[in-house]
Specification:
Elements lengths: L10 H6 L16 H9 L6 E2 L16 H12 L14 H12 L4 H4 L3 E7 H16 L4 E6 L5 H8 L2 E6 L1 E2 L4 E2 L1 H9 L6 E5 L12 H13 L3 E6 L9 H12 L5 E6 L11 E7 L3 H19 L5 H11 L1 H32 L7 H4 L4 E3 L4 H11 L1 E2 L5 E3 L8 H14 L2
Parallel strand pairs: 1-12, 3-4, 3-7, 7-8, 8-9
Antiparallel strand pairs: 2-10, 5-6, 9-10, 11-13
Helix pairs in contact: 3-12, 4-12, 6-7, 6-11, 8-9, 9-10, 12-13, 13-16, 15-16
Length: about 425
């Protein structure tokens, strides 16, 4: 009998018709990425996308930093460069410089070789690798996330094998921090629990603890033997200062305790699609750090084997060279300043219209996002009547605004809050 004669249709396929996947239902769009899908379908000339978590110029265009273009040209001209695989942990220079950027060049943890840093697939990949490492090797499998938090956090940690719980963070009444609730919930977490903290520019609320509050949070976490896991997606992008935005992380690093830090270069270097990130684990000793790294490699190898080379090479070149680094900080500050300016213009426009309510939270919040306080009905009204797209929780990306579009947004919000309670 010929080999081909023995091949028959899969019995599974026969039962379900033409596909073994015929039983699948269509999954809903990602709540954040789905906003852009809806926006792209809209034909209106006044449509506005405030859902996207990426920086835009005053003209509404994506920005590639000049310093990034310069470095890419240098890399292109270097005939000695090749496309060989990186090690499992990634580019050595990138890892060393990333740890310095977040922990500080004079960090005792770095000087004592107590930090292991691995290059990962941006912030999301860093969180996933860290989560899976903890699920395999840490005695406590509960991670507490702020309520609310970035929509991907619960899924990333659940699929990594951790059990997700929440702690109070945002107070809708004040559109600020629920500090008492935060302390109470973290204080009653089981000993050893992992506490996810946004390093700065909390997403989606734009509400950050004050330096004094950070110190109280640190004392509570350390006294309860909890494990802090920082997500740093916006270093330098929140205030315009890389050092200021890293202060909460450095506060924890200075006390000698252990912690994890996920870093992303998507926002602060505009390297979104290059997927450049790092996971740093600060350990008690150099010996522990070596053993931790060996186990993190075993998480990465079957997941994606090793990370991509191009974006990490750009970051390493910029962080290594004094002139390029200074050029980057100037461009970074310009992006942060434009967002701060948009906050002010947006607030002023609502004031000028006499829009009901207190909108001071717009200029008090920090970073790329503003939690407007609009409800899902008001958001739906603004999409339908004004072609303005945002997530249903009322989060808007300040980077998606410009001087030209602020009046349109202010008109829409004024109409929404006066017509829909």
């Amino acid at each position: 009998m010929a080999y081909s004669d023995s091949i028959s249709a899969s019995p599974t396929a026969a039962v379900h018709g033409d596909s073994v996947f015929a039983h699948l239902v269509r999954a809903p769009e990602d709540p954040i990425l789905g906003v852009t899908v809806a926006y792209n379908k809209d034909q209106s000339p006044v449509k506005l996308n405030l859902g996207v978590g990426a920086y835009r110029t005053e003209e509404g265009k994506p920005l590639v930093l000049n310093v990034v273009r310069r470095v890419e040209q240098q890399l292109l001209n270097d005939k000695a460069r090749n496309k060989e695989y990186l090690p499992i942990v990634g580019l050595a220079d990138f890892n060393k410089l990333s740890a310095k950027l977040i922990l500080g060049a004079d960090s005792p943890a770095i000087q004592e070789n107590r930090v292991t840093t691995v290059q990962c697939l941006s912030g999301t990949g860093s969180l996933r690798v860290g989560g899976e490492f903890l699920a395999k090797h840490y005695h406590q499998r509960i991670v507490y996330l702020p309520q609310p938090t970035w929509g991907n956090h619960p899924k990333v940690f659940t699929l990594a094998g951790l059990s997700v719980k929440t702690y109070r963070y945002y107070a809708p009444a004040t559109r600020g921090l629920d500090f008492e609730g935060l302390l109470e919930d973290i204080g009653s977490a089981p000993s050893g629990s992992i506490i996810l903290l946004h390093a700065c520019a909390h997403n989606p609320t734009g509400v950050d603890p004050s330096p004094d509050q950070w110190e109280q949070i640190r004392q509570l976490i350390r006294s309860k033997a909890l494990l802090p896991f920082f997500d740093s997606a916006y270093q330098g992008f929140a205030s315009g200062s890389l050092d200021a935005d890293a202060q909460p992380v450095r506060l924890f690093a200075a006390d000698g305790g252990e912690m994890l830090v996920a870093q992303s270069y998507a926002k602060n270097m505009g390297l979104y699609g290059e997927r450049v990130g790092a996971l740093s684990i600060v350990c008690k000793s150099a010996d522990v750090a070596i053993r931790v790294e060996s186990q993190v490699k075993l998480v990465i190898r079957p997941m994606y084997s090793n990370p991509p080379i191009h974006g990490a090479s750009i970051v390493a070149a910029i962080l290594k060279d004094g002139d390029l680094y200074n050029e980057w900080t100037v461009e970074l500050k310009a992006m942060a300043d434009r967002i701060i300016s948009m906050r002010q213009q947006f607030f002023d426009a609502l004031q000028a219209r006499g829009t009901p309510g207190d909108w001071s939270h717009i200029i008090k919040q920090i970073g790329m996002f503003t939690f407007t306080g609009l409800n899902p009905e008001q958001v739906a009204f603004m999409t339908q009547e004004y072609h303005i797209y945002m997530t249903s929780d009322g989060r808007i990306s300040m980077a998606g605004l410009s001087a030209k579009t602020v009046p349109h947004l202010a008109d829409a919000i004024h109409a929404a809050v006066t017509r829909i309670a």
